[in-house]
């Protein structure tokens, strides 16, 4: 960098040894050094003028707390002192400009946004430029103005580095906190601090929550998480996400129907309303190839552990249903989960399918059982029960109304068959 404030008629500076000079000012022209000393003696006045100018032109500056205004004035004074050294040692320009922000408390970065920092630098430079004629005199005025402009550029870059580092630290902290919240929900370890931790991440307590589980794409976890958040913002959804081994777990919040029926009537049907399906469709591009499972809707984040448990249990067994749709609800995989030993799925099938059929009356339960035993043949069922086929049809429709499963549908018939077997075993 060209040495600031050179004398136009001065001879080229002599070579300097690599060791630091005992007196850094010795290489500065005496006339230039006199200007630098005047700036140094006027540093307090310049800082006060700059802060006064900030009060005048920046509407957000005066309402700040007195402590933050004092911190800003401290930074301005440090900036002027650094400018003095910058004029004497231009070869250390980057180091000197970076030192300015080291006097500022860490919380000042949160109190002053980067946009406001740029405004502060602009106003401070304008205030200092107004004093340049009195400080430099006509011989050095233009060159001092040019040096102030170059120094302000260095300060702006140094400030950008400070804010970028703070953003990286904040992003890393947010990522760790988000992973912790998702992990607590997945493990079912719901703590009292969970809502406040989620709120620190911007979670706004939506009216309903569900957990979605699928394969992780071949990207770094950071890229995957960023894509989920981008898709969630685009769809107007609240999302918390984490990568667990090779699975992408997303907690999605929105205006869904919480507390809906658990009956596994149809994949994506009862228990998974249109609003939730639309939300899942918006997030699907973030998942890798393979099944994507939707957990049941929960009322809030504190009760989302049951949705996570169901979604993860369903993801473990979804390969047993090769024709499963994408996405598929955890309720639609209740028979596979029950066969794999999921006690919650067994209980759901007994309570939501078998019990309503039994309470609807012995004829319905017997008719459905015979229909399943005889391979879904109306005629064989009618002969076995000494009924007319139309009577069998009527009872099957009544059974579907009672338990939410249609015995004439292949997939729902399988679910119904497993539910009846579990119900019979439970009553033995």
UniProtKB/TrEMBL annotation:
Domain PucR C-terminal helix-turn-helix: 364-421
Pfam family for this entry, one: HTH_30
Residue ranges of the region described as Disordered: 1-27
Domain CdaR GGDEF-like: 188-317
InterPro entries linked: CdaR-like_regulators, CdaR_GGDEF, PucR_C-HTH_dom, PucR_C-HTH_sf
Family recorded in the similarity comment: Belongs to the CdaR family.
Listed name of the protein: Polyketide synthase regulator
């Amino acid at each position: 960098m060209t040495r600031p404030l050179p004398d136009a008629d001065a001879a080229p500076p002599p070579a300097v040894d690599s060791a630091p000079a005992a007196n850094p000012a010795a290489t500065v022209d005496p006339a230039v050094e006199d200007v630098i000393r005047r700036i140094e003696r006027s540093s307090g006045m310049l800082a006060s003028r700059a802060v006064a100018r900030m009060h005048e032109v920046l509407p957000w500056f005066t309402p700040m707390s007195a402590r933050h205004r004092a911190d800003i004035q401290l930074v301005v004074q440090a900036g002027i002192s650094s400018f003095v050294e910058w004029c004497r040692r231009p070869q250390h320009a980057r180091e000197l400009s970076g030192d300015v922000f080291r006097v500022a408390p860490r919380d000042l970065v949160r109190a002053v946004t980067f946009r406001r920092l740029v405004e502060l630098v602009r106003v401070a430079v304008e205030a200092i430029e107004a004093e340049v004629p009195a400080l430099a005199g006509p011989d050095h005025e233009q060159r001092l103005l040019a040096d102030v402009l170059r120094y302000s550029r260095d300060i702006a870059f140094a400030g950008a580095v400070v804010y970028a580092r703070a953003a990286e630290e904040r992003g890393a902290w947010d990522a760790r906190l988000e992973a912790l919240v998702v992990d607590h929900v997945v493990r079912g370890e719901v703590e009292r601090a969970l809502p406040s931790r989620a709120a620190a991440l911007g979670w706004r307590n939506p009216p309903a929550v569900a957990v979605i589980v699928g394969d992780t794409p071949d990207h770094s976890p950071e890229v995957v998480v960023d894509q989920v958040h981008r898709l969630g913002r685009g769809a107007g959804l609240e999302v918390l996400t984490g990568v667990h081994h090779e699975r992408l777990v997303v907690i999605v919040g929105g205006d869904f129907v919480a507390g809906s029926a658990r009956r596994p009537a149809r994949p994506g049907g009862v228990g998974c309303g249109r609003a939730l399906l639309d939300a899942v469709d918006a997030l699907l591009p973030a998942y890798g190839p393979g099944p994507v499972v939707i957990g049941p809707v929960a009322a809030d984040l504190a009760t989302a552990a049951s949705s996570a448990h169901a979604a993860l249990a369903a993801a473990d067994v979804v390969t047993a249903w090769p024709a499963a749709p994408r996405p598929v609800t955890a309720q639609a995989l209740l028979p596979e989960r029950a066969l794999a030993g999921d006690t919650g799925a067994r209980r759901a099938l007994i309570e939501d399918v078998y019990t309503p059929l039994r309470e609807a009356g012995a004829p319905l339960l017997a008719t459905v059982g015979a229909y399943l035993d005889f391979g879904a043949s109306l005629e064989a069922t009618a002969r076995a029960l000494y009924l007319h086929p139309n009577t069998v049809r009527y009872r099957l429709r009544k059974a579907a109304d009672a338990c939410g499963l249609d015995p004439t549908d292949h997939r729902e018939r399988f679910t119904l068959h497993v539910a009846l077997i579990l119900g019979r075993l439970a009553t033995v």
